[in-house]
Amino acid sequence: MSTPSDRSQEPLMTVRAAVILMLATQIAVAVGVLTVMAGNAWAVAVLAAGGSFAGTVAFARSVIA
Predict the structure, then answer these.
(1) Cα–Cα distance between 23 and 4 in angstroms, integer?
(2) Burial level of 32, CB count in 10 A (0-12/13-18/19+)?
(3) pLDDT band at 65 (very low <50, low <70, confident <90, very high)
(4) Which of 17, 23, 38, 54 could form a disulfide with 13 if both were Cys (CB 3.0 to 4.6 A apart)?
(5) CB 24 within 8 A of CB 57
């Protein structure tokens, strides 16, 4: 009978994934804030932030090795 592996010591995500998500979150927040400050509605700001988050993740995945 095999013993189950102890997964409690494994990290939740890699450092690369954490950096990509942190960068995308920071850019999305900045885009959302700037969109609201430009006089647009909150809904427009959320859509702009979501789009920038997705774009940043796609770009950063291809750039960060």
Answers:
(1) 36
(2) buried
(3) confident
(4) 17
(5) yes
How far apart CA 29 and CA 36 sit, in angstroms, is: 11
What's the CA gap between 56 and 32, in Å, rounded? 14
pLDDT of amino acid 9: 82
Under 8 Å between Cβ of 49 and 31? yes
Q: What confidence tens digit (pLDDT) does each residue in 1-37 have?
A: 566 677 778 889 999 999 999 999 999 999 999 999 9
Residue 48 corresponds to which amino acid? A
pLDDT for the residue 30: 98
Hey, what amino acid is at 35? T
Coil, helix or strand at residue 47:
helix
